[in-house]
Amino acid sequence: MVRASDIFEPGELAALKRKSDWRGAWLIVHAWAVIFGAMACFVWWPNPVSFILAVLVIAGRQLGLAILMHDAAHKLLFANAQANDRIAAWFCAYPVIADLARYRPYHLSHHRHVQSAEDPDLVLSAPFPTTAASFRRKVLRDLTGQTALKQRGDQLRAARRAGFWRVLYGPILANAALFLLLADFGHWWLYPALWLVPLFTVYQLLTRIRNIAEHAMVPDNADDFRNARTTLAGRLERVLVAPYWVNYHVEHHVLMFVPCYRLPQARALLLAKGYGARIETQPGYATVLRMATSKAA
Fold it and tell me: Which of 214, 264, 217, 259 is nearest to 241 (CA)?
């Protein structure tokens, strides 16, 4: 196991660990500003092209909210633990029908057992590479809402066992508040058209691509620099599939105490210290998808 103290000086580690409440708040504000801005653009210029663009942009920021929930699961979004959990739950997790309190132990188990038989996320990476035909079927299920409906069914069954309201009150109230806010502005229909449609379709596909890029087909499950993957992301990829620096995944696993906005700095330090050749890195998501669909039919 890689120890950060063996790589970085104490001052470097202190700088990387430093949390910024204003940056955490700004990231949440940014995500919601982009979402409401995309909705406003469609209202101002309603046509099929602007609708598709709005769906894509909003789905990318819905993924962004999930990424910020992920940072909060590591207690990195805000310095105060109570504020970290409450703000991330209501403004990041619940709107995308997720639960920070239940996600945290699951995700930390992934970090403890990454790419081993005990890794709860292994099911996401193990099927790859697959055939192009198999991947197309997965994409079709995502974009037609089948994946989301299956997930919601699993949530409902779990809620019946544990107590429906106790499990689902957060997502219900957060989504009701979003609906009422849009209705108050005279556009209630934006909730199903430009919140649920992206969430139940494109968001599912972007999440799948993110999962593939992070751990599928990695070269060495026993090496902390090679059992995850960093994928270099261009501007369009940062809008859609790599919001808020989530593409720096090796850096996150090696330095899981680093807030997302300091991951580029962490990578720069690792490269300066000569670790670049060791870090599993791919030049873009298109490259990763070609790897993921390389199995012969």
Answer: 214
